[in-house]
Specification:
Blueprint lengths: L16 E9 L2 E9 L5 E8 L6 E7 L10 H8 L3 E6 L18 H21 L4 E11 L1 H12 L5 E5 L5 H7 L3 H8 L3 H11 L15 E7 L7 H10 L4 E6 L7 H14 L7 H7 L1
Parallel strand pairs: 4-5, 4-6, 6-7, 7-8, 8-9
Antiparallel strand pairs: 1-2, 2-3, 3-5
Helix pairs in contact: 2-3
Amino acid sequence: MLDPTFFVYDNESTPDIQLVSQRRRGNVTVKDILYTSPQGGYVPAYLLVPFGDGPFAGLIFVHWGQGDRTEFLEEAITLAEIGILSLCIDAPFLRPAKLRAPIASKTAARDLGLQIVADVRRGVDVLMAQPGLDSQRIGFVGHSYGATNGGIVAGIEKRIKTYVLMAGYAATSQVYRVSTHPMIAEQRKKTPPAGWERYLDLIEPLDAIYYIGNTAPASLLFQFAHQDEFVTEEQAQLFFETASKPKQLRWYDSSHELNAQARIDRATWLCQELNLGPLPASVQAKLS
């Protein structure tokens, strides 16, 4: 586990938010924005603003490694109908050079991990700066890469009330040592052994297993797939069992991408945990 000072950032300053463009989707305003990262550079994000004056719940989405901030865009637009103001952010490794923070090549693997955690925490500041946002009702949804790093965030960011972690790893460094998945195995094969060990040593302190046990009083919903080609059932159980309570675990007959039932289940969970009332049938139908 890293020294907690690694995660300290200036949370007293007002986030610098720049509007790139905006458009309407029904009663939802879709804003393409940039906001400053505490680690340097800018974070590209979509800000989904519901119609009306609030009060709104807040939600941060972080995509999987094969995706970008568009992964949850349609879901966030749908959830805006029930009063959720959402932020969908791009991971640091996806950003164009002009928006990236300067990162030392020797510690890039660790520094990129630290940056996504800082960017999510600054994302809470961005949400709280929005008119009508209820700061006591903020949630987080992460898939794969987003869930793995969300496990770190959950242990150190106490302004988030509930987390939905979809198909993530509790201990990435352990998985990368033994995984037979072709993508991971190929990366391991083409990296010199000394370089591979250095890489694993750099990322090991950022394994979610060191942080997920410190999430209380925030609640956790874990979503995993029986046919997941990346995350084994043993790895999934480790993530869940290590986490603090209150927590729930749900399984789906799907691949790593999960499915419509998972979308409905997390929307229902968010309605419950963020005090939004029952999930309307019209919204459930759109998520199906």
